[in-house]
Amino acid sequence: MSRPELPDIVYKYTNEKAARLIIANRSLRIGRPTEMNDPFDVYLDDLFEDDPRDLLNAASERLVDMLSRDPAEYAKRTGTPLEQAIVNSAAINAGTVAQRDQFLALITSPIVEALYPQLKAVRQELEIQRTAIVAQFRNSGIFCATRNKINLLMWSHYADAHRGVVFGFRPDAARDSFLCLLEPVTYSDVRPSFYKPFDPLVGELPAPTPEAMRAFTRSLTAVKSKEWAYEEELRIVIPSYVPEGQSEVFMPYYATELAELYLGCRVSEGDRDEIVAAARALNKDVAIFQARTTPGAYALSFEPLT
Prior knowledge:
The chain is of the alpha+beta class. The protein has helices spanning about 15-25, 50-70, 70-80, 80-95, 95-105, 110-115, 115-140, 150-160, 210-220, 270-280; strands at about 10-15, 25-30, 140-145, 165-170, 185, 185-190, 225, 235-240, 250, 260-265, 285-295, 300-305. The protein contains ten helices and twelve strands.
């Protein structure tokens, strides 16, 4: 599978204090999902609130509906002899609500797994996959960047109300930089669902293949609400990376990857001079810009500092 193309330079918004550490330590912070500002970000708990047995019971209710409407399809799906399915269908359609409920109680009991062995296999596979996903992301680490260096909201939210900076990093593919692993976030009105791809009543029963699980785990880590689309986010998620008891770890970058530095329009003169000196000491070729408010417009302009 081909990876989405990265922009030549990726941007990281941060406050003045963190900016000093990023330069001094030549490293970038990799945090846990629980440290993110979006409570839905890589949030697994409510995706697994439903027990697979309950979901299969709900599927069984649809089986009863199928039996009453189309006994031939019911027979095909469950392996029940067609003659028996026709008799049961007639009984359900002619019976009372209480009799229908009795039949539903039967079909949602463990007997249903004998009638439809694939349900048991799916339930067991879902349990395995669910356990693996939760374990995988419990200690995951996330690094976030963006394509956009001029967004006013992000300057306000992530760069201390324009008193911070934006770093521009040029990922070094030749030296296998971890920044080359960045992938774009996609934005959706619908949260990912663990169980929907494995609904046994939607067409043929699909197998939970490794490819399907990789696509699902990516949907957990790289899909956010459309309300965040203005961020144009890029991110790296490293499963099982942050040790227990820690909220973060730090990953080194190459000095030459620090290609650009943008100073907020409200940065103090003292902070500006110290950060500029430190950045040039790290990489003498870094391009440095001072943000200014643009007269007559809600926009920033950037003045090169020589």
